Hints:
Layout: H1 20-26, H2 43-52, E1 70-74, H3 81-94, E2 102-106, H4 108-113, H5 120-123, E3 135-140, E4 143-149, E5 158-163, E6 169-173, H6 174-178, E7 181-187, H7 207-215, H8 220-234, E8 238-244, E9 250-257, H9 258-273, E10 274-276, E11 283-287, H10 297-308, E12 317-320, H11 329-336, H12 349-360, E13 363-366, H13 371-375, E14 380-381, H14 385-392, E15 398-401, E16 408-410
Parallel strand pairs: 1-2, 1-7, 2-4, 7-8, 10-16, 11-12, 11-15, 12-13, 13-14
Antiparallel strand pairs: 3-4, 5-6, 8-9
Helix pairs in contact: 2-3, 10-12, 11-12
Amino acid sequence: xxxxxxxxxxxxxxxxxxxxxxxxxxxxxxxxxxxxxxxxxxxxxxxxxxxxxxxxxxxxxxxxxxxxxxxxxxxxxxxxxxxxxxxxxxxxxxxxxxxxxxxxxxxxxxxxxxxxxxxxxxxxxxxxxxxxxxxxxxxxxxxxxxxxxxxxxxxxxxxxxxxxxxxxxxxxxxxxxxxxxxxxxxxxxxxxxxxxxxxxxxxxxxxxxxxxxxxxxxxxxxxxxxxxxxxxxxxxxxxxxxxxxxxxxxxxxxxxxxxxxxxxxxxxxxxxxxxxxxxxxxxxxxxxxxxxxxxxxxxxxxxxxxxxxxxxxxxxxxxxxxxxxxxxxxxxxxxxxxxxxxxxxxxxxxxxxxxxxxxxxxxxxxxxxxxxxxxxxxxxxxxxxxxxxxxxxxxxxxxxxxxxxxxxxxxxxx
Length: 414
């Protein structure tokens, strides 16, 4: 089998989470792909350069002063979080800020990645505790820094920020509200990632705001407007944005004026993840790699839909990920549509499309699910890389699509 990939989202390097080299050597053998995602990126030097020369904003060293209370919010899923935090704290202390005046706010998953051991007090509800968030001190180069695990259920760690356009109160993490200088560090997301995500809002709000934001029927534009109103009320006009390519490798850093930085990061992200359709791959292996936590069924659905658009109509699709969650009723119904006369009228357009692909294609999955769980959905069970090699044997043209759930397919689907 051979392939002729030309996308930044197609990679041929080794990975801890996926045996890429063996695949590319065995069934996807082709000349080395030269793309932006293959270029080595010096995170340390690029971050220092960006902080010293931000876009439409004074250098970080000229924006903070001794005695300032600094709050750093790290967006969930931020790649290389500890390295980024180490460099950022180093730059702040070089500018005269005392480490005791720096507070880092993270979610539980990223806290664990930073080496914080989550305690019962971190996850206690407001009725069980009556104090702000507990500070965990973690070692970084040159000293320690305080990390606070955001608890959306602990009202004593939240402050009122504003009332949104519907008149509903918005409560945000108290440390972010009270800080003299707020430094949000986020990661650009693509349109296929779904809802707008941000390094401040709604991630570090109360549970009621987060749930409303996730379940609200309002448009993406309306939600982005709500984010903008909240961060402007907060006075968060500075931001740092990372852009990550396949496998979660940082490929761009932008800092400076919030709106300009977000636009530049989104443009870079779009370039990195864009794929032109028109391929004739006879089989696709799609991975889901750069996640904080395990893959979700929504990731799986997006990976399938994107893989279906870069392959022939009957091409098998193999998804490699660490999915462990049980499927929702909607997922089960969409999968069962290939066997039974299920009506898809009540499904969203995306789920109807997914159900149609399930009917037309052979779908295989390597995951944390047991064989019985996978096959009960009409999905083939993959246990080893050898299983993929056997499935791929009859085909001449294959495609390896890394982090397929994030790809932005351009043009019309085949």
